[in-house]
Write a structure and sequence with these properties.
The chain is α/β, with parallel strands linked by helices. It is built from 9 helices and 12 strands. The strands form 3 sheets. An 8-stranded parallel barrel has the order 1-2-3-4-6-8-9-12. α3 packs parallel to α4 and α4 packs across α5. The longest helix has 18 residues. The chain is globular, with a radius of gyration of 18 Å. The termini are close together. Bound molecules: fe (iii) ion (2 copies) and zinc ion (ZN). The site of one fe (iii) ion has 4 residues, from loops.
């Protein structure tokens, strides 16, 4: 069965997210670990986690993808801000142990003029400090649009980060279709080539999840503005090919399209139909 879900609000806790997911035929979902623009985290309630785990088992909701606040920058020029990123993600990883066996996705960071190589080593250094042996969460580096000094717009950059991480088994990649398109990978016309390129540079065994979004902008625009499925420049047919691609179809897909719940429900149903063929 297709694993597909969407981004959900975490304000009412895990059980509420599980119920919302089930109500729209989602069997996976993503949420922000805390305010995406801030760093304050909500307390995790044992009761809520317990009811969620029971519901997730009953409704077969797995995996859960936590998303780090996107203001965090592991390769900021400012040491204080690098520390904020490190401490926040370390705390998130600790909290994720309440729901073991899931994923924690983050934006690698912006090198802000320090240069790609410096940025890459700062990101890897942070990962080496916060990933604990025996941890039950896999950290995912998200492919980025390559906006400004963003790291992760090229598969090579992600590979370089992964190569410097000691806990190799605890890191992977989340491919965002809007981002790779915006950074110049033509998934609309050359999906097979892009998949082969990912495999050559990073290895498909490191690909753990897909953010399924259309893009408001043309190939290589480096903009990062998500569109609804079929309402952007990538298009419905191309995104249907992503979901059904033999190398990708068993991965979990997460919609981050500009939608309310009904819109997500429609896109989920649409993708289930093409997946089942
Ligand atoms: Fe993201
Ligand atoms: Fe994304
Ligand atoms: Zn984005």
């Amino acid at each position: 069965m297709l694993r597909i879900g969407c981004h959900l609000s975490s304000s009412k806790g895990f059980k509420a997210m599980g119920q919302t997911a089930a109500s729209i035929q989602a069997n996976t979902f993503q949420f922000f670990t805390r305010n995406p623009r801030g760093t304050r985290a909500k307390e995790i309630k044992e009761e809520d986690v317990k009811s969620f785990l029971a519901l997730a088992a009953e409704k077969d909701i797995t995996p859960v993808l936590a998303h780090a606040p996107y203001i965090l920058n592991a390769c900021s020029k400012d040491e204080g801000l690098r520390k904020v990123a490190k401490d926040t993600m370390a705390d998130d990883l600790k909290r994720m142990e309440h729901i073991p066996g899931n994923f924690y996705n983050f934006h690698p960071g912006c090198h802000v003029g320090q240069g790609v190589e410096t940025g890459i080593s700062q990101i890897a250094a942070m990962l080496n400090e916060i990933i604990k042996p025996g941890q039950h969460t896999t950290m995912l580096l998200e492919t980025m649009a390559g906006k400004g000094s963003e790291i992760g717009g090229r598969f090579e950059e992600l590979r370089e980060i992964l190569d410097q991480v000691e806990e190799w088994e605890r890191v992977g990649v989340c491919l965002d279709t809007c981002h790779v398109w915006d950074s110049g990978y033509d998934i609309a016309n050359r999906l097979d080539e892009v998949v082969r390129e990912f495999d050559r540079v990073i290895g498909l065994n490191k690909l753990k999840a897909i953010h399924l979004n259309d893009s408001m902008n043309p190939l290589g625009s480096r903009k990062d503005r998500h569109a609804r499925i079929g309402e952007g420049k990538i298009g419905y047919d191309a995104l249907a090919r992503v979901v059904t691609h033999p190398a990708l179809r068993e991965l979990p897909f997460f919609l981050e399209t500009p939608n309310e719940l009904e819109g997500y429900a429609r896109e989920i149903a649409m993708m289930r139909r093409v997946w089942e063929g």
